[in-house]
Design brief:
Layout: E1 2-7, H1 11-22, E2 27-33, H2 37-47, E3 50-51, H3 55-59, E4 66-69, H4 76-85, E5 89-92, H5 100-113, E6 117-119, H6 127-138, E7 144-152, H7 172-175, H8 179-182, H9 184-195, E8 199-207, E9 224-231, E10 236-242, E11 253-257, E12 260-264, E13 272-276, E14 281-284, H10 302-312, H11 320-339, E15 343-344
Parallel strand pairs: 1-2, 1-4, 2-3, 4-5, 5-6, 7-10
Antiparallel strand pairs: 7-11, 8-9, 8-15, 9-10, 11-12, 12-13, 13-14
Helix pairs in contact: 4-5, 5-11, 6-9, 9-11
Length: about 350
């Protein structure tokens, strides 16, 4: 049995972490903490456990084996490193941290303390993406030539525990990043996983096109982005992110391969479709991608992977060592957008 605490009681903690911990037979939820005590009280009432006055109080509780870090981006590294130094295994939400040094320091703290550190990259665990990886690795479609992948929704102000245009997601001091790192990290990590190679260079354009604070001034981070990504000895493609898709959420990926085209989560009825070069087709009805609009979230697999990794001490596909490679691409994209040029990794 793994005793778990949750630090940060926003929407991701409520809708994903707490629910999935509750459904895992190997977990006991010990409690919650948040700078807003009322949120922690609500979580404890709904999911069990106690309310801790602070993260320090929780981390000093020797009965807790592991914690989820679900705070704003700017505090991921600080709290994760503190937790690891207190001997806790850590599942940290994405994006991993706001600087590459912070990411490296988090991994160093995990290694120094002999603890597991994983990052919530749930897209690797989606059934259609796992099946796609299996098909691609089999060689059935040949090599990937090019790709396009998009993640767009109405914006985090619809999802954040503090609804409205003054959400922490829109502020550099707390979020550090906008849509590119918030949503793009998912798609960058997914494409790395599917391609099975590392990125060679990127060219990115980040813009604030529509989102505004309540006073009418533009938000401090990007709400749309497009990244052109070239893999080493591999495909060229685009990652597109948006917080201004004011209709249905888009979480689709298309892979153009030597022997056909693979469509992921682009059809409401089939989560994986293949159009083969010879004219034949294959449709797979595996699941439905998670969205922020779902009242009942399906199991993302992240919590189960984390707990299994802690119990079995085995490498997982959401280990921090994998996540930092995806963050290197994010930081290269940020540099490219700032300098207006291609950046080689």
């Amino acid at each position: 049995m793994i005793n778990v605490g949750v630090i940060g009681c926003g929407s991701i903690a409520r809708m994903r972490h707490a629910v999935e911990y509750s459904n895992n037979p190997n977990v006991k939820i010990m409690g919650f903490c948040d700078f807003n005590k009322d949120r922690a009280v609500e979580m404890a009432n709904d999911f069990g456990g106690k309310v801790y006055a602070s993260d320090d109080e929780m981390l000093n509780d020797s009965s807790i084996d592991a914690v989820s870090v679900c705070v704003a981006n700017a505090y991921h590294a600080e709290i994760t490193i503190k937790a690891l130094n207190h001997g806790k295994h850590v599942l940290c939400e994405k994006p991993m941290a706001i600087t590459l040094k912070d990411c490296a320091d988090m991994i160093e703290a995990a290694n120094n303390n002999g603890k597991r550190l994983m990052i919530g990259h749930n897209q690797r665990l989606a059934p259609a993406h796992k099946k796609a990886k299996e098909i691609l690795d089999s060689g059935e479609l040949g090599n990937i030539i090019s790709f396009s992948t998009t993640f767009g929704h109405k914006g985090p102000e619809m999802w954040s525990v503090d609804k409205g245009n003054n959400t922490w997601f829109f502020k550099k001091s707390t979020a550090a990043f906008g849509s590119m790192a918030d949503l793009g990290i998912h798609k960058i990590d997914l494409i790395r996983y599917l391609v099975g190679e590392e990125v060679d260079n990127v060219y990115a354009n980040l813009s604030t096109l529509d989102k505004k604070f309540s006073d009418g001034t533009p938000i401090e981070v990007d709400d749309n982005s497009v990244e052109l990504i070239k893999f080493k000895n591999g495909p060229l493609g685009t990652v597109t992110t948006s917080w201004t898709h004011y209709g249905d959420e888009c979480n689709a990926t298309v892979l153009y391969c030597e022997k056909g085209v693979m469509h992921l989560y682009s059809d409401p009825n089939y989560s994986l479709k293949i159009d083969y070069a010879d004219g034949t087709r294959a449709h797979y009805k595996l699941d439905r991608i998670q969205t922020n609009n779902d009242s009942m979230q399906a199991n993302s697999g992240v919590i189960d992977t984390f707990i299994n990794g802690v119990l079995n001490s085995k490498k997982t596909i959401i280990d921090a060592e994998e996540a930092i490679e995806s963050m290197k691409v994010v930081f290269a994209c940020l540099e490219s957008a700032e300098k207006g040029c291609r950046v080689k990794l």
